[in-house]
Amino acid sequence: MEKLSGAEMVVRALQDEGVEFLFGYPGGAVLHIYDAIFQQDTVNHILVRHEQAATHAADGYARSTGKPGVVLVTSGPGATNAVTGIATAYMDSIPMVVLSGQVRSDWIGDDAFQETDMIGICRPIVKHSFSIRDTADIPEVMKKAFYIATTGRPGPVLIDIPKDLTSPMAKFPYEYPSKVKMRSYNPVVRGHSGQIRKAVEEMLKAKRPVIYAGGGVVQGDASEFLINLARELNYPVTNTLMGLGSYPATDRQHLGMLGMHGTYEANMAMHNADFILAAGARFDDRVTNDTKKFAPGATIVHIDVDPAAISKNVRADIPIVGPVEHVLEEMLSIVKEIATKPDAKSLARWWEEIDGWRDHHGLRYEKNDNGLLKPQQVVESLYRATNGNAYVTSDVGQHQMFAAQFYKFDKPRQWINSGGLGTMGFGLPSAMGVQFAFPDSMVACVTGEASIQMNIQELSTCLQYHLPIKIININNQSLGMVRQWQDMQYGGRHSQSYMESLPDFVKLAESYGHVGIKVEKADQLDEAMDRAFSLKDRLVFLDVYVDPTEHVYPMHIADSSMRDMWLSKTERT
Amino acid sequence: MRRIISILMENEPGALSRVVGLFAQRGYNIETLTVAPTEDKTLSRLTLTTYGDDKKIEQITKQLNKLIEVVKLVDLTEGPHVEREIMLIKIKATGAQRAEVKRTVDIFRGQIVDVTNSLYTVQLAGTTDKLDAFIGAVEAQVMEVVRSGVSGIARGEKVLSI
Ligand SMILES: Cc1ncc(C[n+]2csc(CCOP(=O)(O)OP(=O)(O)O)c2C)c(N)n1
Ligand SMILES: [Mg+2]
């Protein structure tokens, strides 16, 4: 058998896993591994400018491709810098493998230089973690890490590797296991057939049904089954922030996003439903509002691959534990074969009601007549310029909600954002990961002047690797989302939500070797947007000044039911 | 309601900290905790007691089951079971009290495992209630108490194994 050093084993295992990109940043504890990386060219190492960006880039790669993102960081500060990105991936169940260097095994516990207990720090934010104790274990641990990260409910897995175990001086036999079996880890592969049939029977009895589809549908590649099932039944579909794209937004049966900033029609439909099929969604507090007042008349079927997600926040009447793609597929075939059909008359009445809500309030906003742009217009212009075909990543804030509301995502994996953790600084590095995966596709990062500054250094990485990302900076000169809450709940006292001393983003982009364009008036927008996308091989930073006073609506009224919303600054349900 | 959750898990470094960490992270309380390897050295048996309503216990067991190292678990309080705790207790015993303490120990079927001029060290096994009752019944001064935490096993044919 071939003999390899620990460092070579790590790199070889990545090759054996078919890893294309490794996002990382070197340092003392991982220098042996970096030396092994230098001596091969199958795994492309991407040098970021901050370890947080490495994790977000790997995350963007994972979200857009469905393949695990892989990260390599050094011990101590390198590892702690990666923590936010690991937590971000954990909250959204993104498959990721993070390799962190560690001090020599015999120094662990001595507060050695750049020692941190990464396993301890990450315990609550990883699906699992491994600490390498013996070089010979590396192949098996790597195999297990990828297996755990990508199966069941996916998530980040950490491998902590002490430096001495990667030494080039000691070589061990290497064989990459072809499979793993773990007696303590057996993710479900199918849903319970009896439950599925029962759920379908209940679903066909519904008079006011809604399908509520979340990120699990995107991640499980279950979109096709969702679409076919909804079309077969003519049932309305609403998506969570994470589920956008899993059902075409331009389709008549789509009600848009639901939840805190969901559409009026989606939230009204949920509240008034007599049946809810929750597919790969987790009844997050940003969706349900007060769970005690949630959908009072609905029978709830909940499909989730994670048993712990079921009946955690809202009790499911018919729980189905299983991969959403298999369960929806099975449901679809039962629906086709079964004699019962949905009651067409009630369904027609239901659609009439929904269409009434749609007319009452889709996503309306008032334009300014003095030429000052509204943020919504920027997203609409982006949608137009890209024909709805771009990958869109976002940061966190009002711009994120406007992107979710106004860019009509027709395809899964097209919309990439940090939903669970809400990490400012996610947008640009995740866009890098997407652009690496799809070098010929349009990738836009919708951001705010505050969020973008949390990982602005990555403009340098973008130059190094020629990533032609289009940064759409919706510049409202404030922490818009914070400011909105302060307007609504703190008597307009804008405590620290104002971004003073903004840089000249055009010059900043230029100094990093990119193109910067500033837009200050509504009539400049479309032209600037088109120009940005015509520069196919350049990163363009579009700095668009917008009305700082705009709010995101609809907005749930806290501690109420889903139908209780603010619809504008003055109008509420 | 008080529950006894018994967990079979991989006997690996870090596994225990994941179980304990989960309780802290999710805001659940641990009343007692005991852990030791089983006859199969690759497995540990961990028993803990906690309080919670059905919904909370359902979440706890589901979240525990998600931990990769947890092989199997059971809520012993769902069925008939035997539970035991061991206590070592040092009691001040001088003069007339010596006989008195000895009598109480006998009533509770404890054993005196160490003796000095002024102290008895008593070993007592039983349910948590019984140990509590003993402490309540001893009239002499209690100097030190060490309790093992609850261990438990299901009655009858039921076996927690892989
Ligand atoms: C790392 C981090 N810190 C703080 C927050 C809280 N937060 C949420 S939105 C927001 C303001 C974002 O401002 P900006 O990026 O300009 O977006 P806008 O809301 O103005 O569109 C803040 C501070 C967060 N989500 N993430
Ligand atoms: Mg802003």
Key attributes of the depicted protein:
heterodimer, A: 573 residues, alpha/beta, 21 helices, 22 strands, B: 162 residues, 28% helix, elongated, binds thiamine diphosphate, binds magnesium ion
Stretches with pLDDT under 50, minimum 5 residues of chain B:
none
Radius of gyration from the alpha-carbon trace of chain B, in angstroms: 18 Å
Query: Shape of chain A from CA axes?
Result: globular
- Tell me, rounded to a whole number, the average pLDDT of chain A: 97
Number of helices, where a helix is a run of at least 4 consecutive DSSP H or I residues of chain B: 4
Order of helices and strands of chain B: EHEEHEEHEEHEE
Q: Overall mean pLDDT score of chain B?
A: 95
Question: What does this 3D model show about the protein?
Answer:
- The complex is a heterodimer of chains A (573) and B (162).
- With 573 residues, chain A is an alpha/beta fold.
- Chain A is 36% helix and 17% strand.
- Chain A is built from 21 helices and 22 strands.
- Chain A has a six-stranded parallel beta sheet, with helices on both faces.
- In chain A, helix 3 crosses helix 17 (427-437).
- Chain A is globular and about 75 Å long.
- In chain A, 56% of the residues are buried.
- The model of chain A has no long low-confidence stretch (mean pLDDT 97).
- By secondary structure, chain B is α+β, with helices and mostly antiparallel strands.
- In chain B, strands 5, 6, 7, 8 and 9 form a five-stranded antiparallel beta sheet that branches.
- Chain B is elongated and about 55 Å long.
- Chain A binds chain B through residues 119-120, 123-124, 127-129, 131, 148, 182-185, 306-308, 311-312, and chain B through 9-10, 13-14, 17-18, 21-22, 25, 55, 58-59, 62-63, 65-66, 68-71, 162.
- The structure holds thiamine diphosphate (TPP) and magnesium ion.
- Residues 397, 448-450, 476, 478-480 of chain A line the site of magnesium ion.
